Structure formats: structure tokens, C-alpha cells
Amino acid sequence: MSYHLLAYFAIFLPVVILIYQITPQKFRWMILLAADYVFFWMISGKLILYLLFATIMTHYIGLWLETAAQAGGSAKQVTKRKRKVLAFGILVNLTILIILKYFNFFGENLSALSNMLSLGWEYKKIDFMVPIGISYYTLQTISYMTDVYRGTIPAEKNIVKIALYLSFFPQIMEGPISRFSETAEALWSGKRIEFENIKFGYQRIVYGLLKKIVIADRVAPVVIEVFKHYDTYDGSIVLFGAVCFTIQLYMEFSGCMDIIMGSGQIFGVTLPENFRQPFFAKDASDFWHRWHITLGTWFKDYIFYPVSLAKPVKNFAKKVKNRFGRGVSKFVAPFAALFCVWSCNGLWHGPHWTYIFYGMYYFALIFLENILEEPVTKLTAKLKINREGKGYRIFRLIKLLVIVNLGEMFFRAETVGTGFAMLGRILTNFHITELGDHIYSLGMDYYDAAVALIGILIVLVVDILHEKNIQIRKAISGWALPARWVFWYAAIFIVIIFGAYGAGYTVVDMIYAGY
User: Fold this and answer.
1) Maximum distance among all alpha carbons in the chain?
2) DSSP 3-state assignment of 186?
3) Residue burial 216-255, b: 16+ Cβ < 10 Å; e: rest
4) Stated pTM of the model
5) What does the pLDDT look like over 452-494, one tens digit per residue?
6) Where are the domains of the chain?
7) Which one, 115, 190, 239, 268, has least CB within 10 Å?
């Protein structure tokens, strides 16, 4: 059951809301937990056992960490005990994720290496069944255990709270990746659902559906066609396909986040935002502060900082400083930390070399930005270039669009080699007239193109208003009642009438639900 399907927002969600609301407050957590596990079971069946194991393991590791802290001894001894417990907990949860999701990838690549070296070893693929959301809830288990280890939060005695935190049905499939301190109490409290929550929640769901089924699913056929047959198309069409994928990914992922955030809001649960107008970013680094925000902050808090502050990194930085000076040594910690972050980011998305390349692509770009920031600042000041001026902002936007679309092209490509082949066609076989001649034969006719374009313009206007910190739903709530009803009913009918579903359209699965 996907979040954008009628079965979710028109049947499952309303039924849960109704049962939750008529249940006494002290028992509402039971309804929410039952809904969580029913939702998970409907998608992954018996694989729910992995979620149950992760919940039990996370709960008892938290208690064990607290016991280790209270066992006495010197501060050094306590830290050592806690570190062992944390390492064990993380290792167990990560091992399950790695075996289910990455074992075949490593096995097949070792087999390929064996063939290259004529060693005669061949790997036989194992068909693992992977539970939905494992990449998301595993990161949440690690953040909980690490926060208990650091003393940021106390160990939770009630395993139900941890179960609710790890399995909340609106976020189990695509995130956002929340922290225990952000959502646990709201999930447990069982507060009454207010009309305002339902109103604002469903308003955001409608906006998410607009992005997903009106825009993203409408450009999806173009993406499928161009990426499948790129070698038969002109470079202009290949570029158009790459741009369409960026549009599809943004509209779908952010749209699903809107549905998820709206669902959480109905139950009084404020989930962390995952998008903040990413195409208004200044550079690649800023882009990732606005795109998939919770994944980025997770990597920052649990990988970037620990690696930056690790003794081996500090010691190596000192050696570099003694030999090459501070001008070089100051980049040692960022280099090591960024490399680890983006290696993990690439692998987190899936067991494919394209994702690893994608991670290394942004590692190189962001590290290069760090190195060049000071020289560029000095150069622009010397040339008296206003970095906040209109011309420079346009240059910055064009640069960002090139960076993002190129990265997403490799992200979507079948292989890294395919990505380079597509880039080659763009650079060496580009004729814009070819795009004009074939644009409506790629799986999207004039009607589809017009609807998609209008939808994109609507989202652009909304993003501009959000960037200016204008809260649109609150502003609309101040309108006269008839105007509000007309606006929201019009929005609903736009989704119903112009959604890319039914005869002539193929259901498009959510991209990030596969991670």
C-alpha cells in the first residue's frame, strides 16, 4: 500500500482516525501501534519479524547502556563498557541490514574480481526478502542507541514507546528519519484528534498528491523511455530525459513527504521536515541542507562529527600540519569525514555502483567547494563582483541546476558506464531541433506536457512563498469561508481530474520506498 494510493488516504487513514478517535485516550497507543503493524504486515508480511527484532534489540541495548553507566568505576571504565555495548547493538542491527540488502552486491563483485584474477570462485546469488523501510528504521535504532550512550536522552523503560517510534506507519516506508526525542511522546500521548489537525493534515496531503500523481507520474514515461533507449536519441532528448527525472524525483519524494507530514499532523505528531526549497540553494552543500534533510543531519551527527573528532584523524592532521602547514592540515578532518559520509550516503541508497558514484560525485563537489570558498571570496571581492547581485545569483542557479541534473542522471542510469554514455551524447551529439521534433513522442503528449508545466509552475510559486517564510495554509485559513471551500475543493478536483492514473497510465511506484 503506497501513500499516494486511494486505499491509503481514503480508506486506511480515515479508518485509523475513526477508531483512534473513539478509543479512550489511555488506550489510543494500542490503536496506533496496531495500525503501524497492520500497515507493515500488509506490505512485507512475515518480514515484520525483522522490525520486531530490531525493536526488542534497541530497547534492551538502551537499558544495557544505562546499566553499564551505573555499574561504577572510573569515567574511563564506564565509557569503555558503554562503548562495547553500543558497538554490539549497532553491529547487530547493521549486520541484518547489510546481509539482506548488500550481501549479494558484495558477493557478485567479489565473484567478478575472482574471474578477473582467474581464481575460479563464483558466487551464487541468494534471494533475500527485504522488509520495507529497513534502511530508515535501522538508522533510527542507531540514533536512539547512540543518543542514550551520549546521555542526550535517558534509556526508555517502556518498549511500546520504542515500537511506536520505529514503526509509525506514515513514515516507515520513506522516512523522514526522526529522533526519539522528536516523536516518541507525541506518539504515546494519545491526544484527541482536533478538527484543525485533520483540516491542515489533509490539505497537505492534497498538495502532496498534486506533486506525485499530477506532475511526477506524468513525466515518468519520458524518463523510462529516454533512460532505456538513450543510445537511439539525440543529446538534447537525453538531457530532457535527465531533467524530467530530476523533476520526477523532486515532485515525487517531496510530494510523498507532504502526504507523510500531513498524516502525522492529523495525529498531532510533528515529523521533521525533509525538504526546504532545495533549488534555491547557493551551492551543492547548501542543496543537501535542503534536500532529504533528515538523512543529511543523521550523517552529520552520527558520522561526520565522530569521524572529524576521531583520534586517528586528529593525529594524522597534526602530522600533515607539521609537514605542510595549517593551510593543508585544516582540510584533513573535513576530507576524512566527508568521504565517510558520502560513501555511506551512496551505499544507503542501494547496492549499486551508480549510487556509490553518486555519493563520490557529491563528496568531490562539496570538498572542492570547501577548498575554493576562501579563494573565490577573495577573487570576487578583488573583481568587485557582488555575490548577492542578480547576475551572480543567476550564475549560481545555472551552476546548481547543472550539478543537480548531472548527478541525478548518474543516479538513475542503469550503470556508471551508461551515465557517461548519456553524458557523451549530450556533449557530442546535441541538436535542439531534435527535441522539438520528438518531444511529444516520448510518452507524454501535448496535454500531458501542458498539465505538467502548469503543475510545476504552481509548485514553483509555492516554493518561492515558502522561501519568503509565507505560510500558505495559514494565510488561506484567514480567507472568508466560501473562498476557502472553493479553493480547497478546486485543489481536490484538480488532483482527481488531472492525476496521471487510470486508462492509458501505468502506476508508478514510489522511488524512495525502495531504499
Assistant:
1) 77
2) helix
3) bbbbbbbbbbbbeebeebbbbbbbbbbbbbbbbbbbbbbb
4) 0.94
5) 999 999 999 999 999 999 989 888 988 988 999 999 999 999 9
6) 6-192
7) 115
